From TrEMBL:
Pfam families: FA_FANCE (PF11510)
Name of protein: FANCE protein
Source species taxonomy: Eukaryota, Metazoa, Chordata, Craniata, Vertebrata
One annotated GO biological process: interstrand cross-link repair
Recorded superkingdom: Eukaryota
Organism: Jacana jacana
InterPro entries: FANCE, Fanconi_anaemia_gr_E_prot_C
GO cellular component, one term: Fanconi anaemia nuclear complex
Length: 181
């Protein structure tokens, strides 16, 4: 029903200044939306816009994303961030956007969710900045997640022998988690 309502209201294509207003209205709702409703709205409001970014997002889109993400991080991560990470190709603007959201908006639990999502797929040059952004948050990683990260980085080392991003990532790991490494 919510998908139908979003389609009827054409929320996926509404102007971005109205999107900001709509998100402000959503944030004021009480009680909060349920997980499924928030996930549907994250998909309907943002997925198409974010996947089609060819340049940095407008300030209106960033305001709407930040607002929505601040209250509904879990469904946002499961729907939008997962789709961006799985999107084939470079996706430079999308990757920058995910990094910015990781650095500034997501709750610590969601930051760990993003890292686990990255580690579920083959590591690529596109995903290295996302891992770097996660590490930059300096969140405490669960031992299993940390071990998987170290193992993934070790296994992928030959594939990234000439990658500056990979070298930065390894240096960050050695600096931030020296005792655990």
């Amino acid at each position: 029903q919510l998908r139908g309502l979003c389609s009827f209201l054409q929320l996926s294509t509404c102007p971005e200044n109205l999107l900001v207003r709509f998100c402000s209205w959503l944030m004021a709702l009480t009680p909060d939306l349920g997980y499924k409703s928030a996930a549907v709205l994250a998909e309907q409001l943002f997925l198409r816009r974010v996947l089609s970014l060819a340049q940095p997002p407008s300030r209106h889109l960033m305001a709407a994303l930040t607002s929505f993400c601040s209250k509904y991080s879990q469904p946002f991560c499961q729907v939008l961030v997962a789709a961006v990470l799985q999107e084939p190709g470079e996706g430079t603007e999308q990757t920058k956007l995910v990094c910015e959201l990781v650095e500034e908006c997501l709750e610590p639990d969601c930051v760990r969710v993003v890292l686990s999502q990255v580690l579920e797929m083959p590591l690529s040059e596109k995903l290295l900045p996302v891992v770097q952004a996660v590490l930059g948050r300096q969140e405490v990683l669960l031992p299993e997640l940390f071990d998987l990260l170290v193992l993934t980085l070790c296994r992928q080392a030959p594939a990234f022998a000439t990658s500056l991003n990979y070298a930065k990532l390894v240096m960050a790991m050695l600096t931030m988690y020296q005792s655990q490494v």
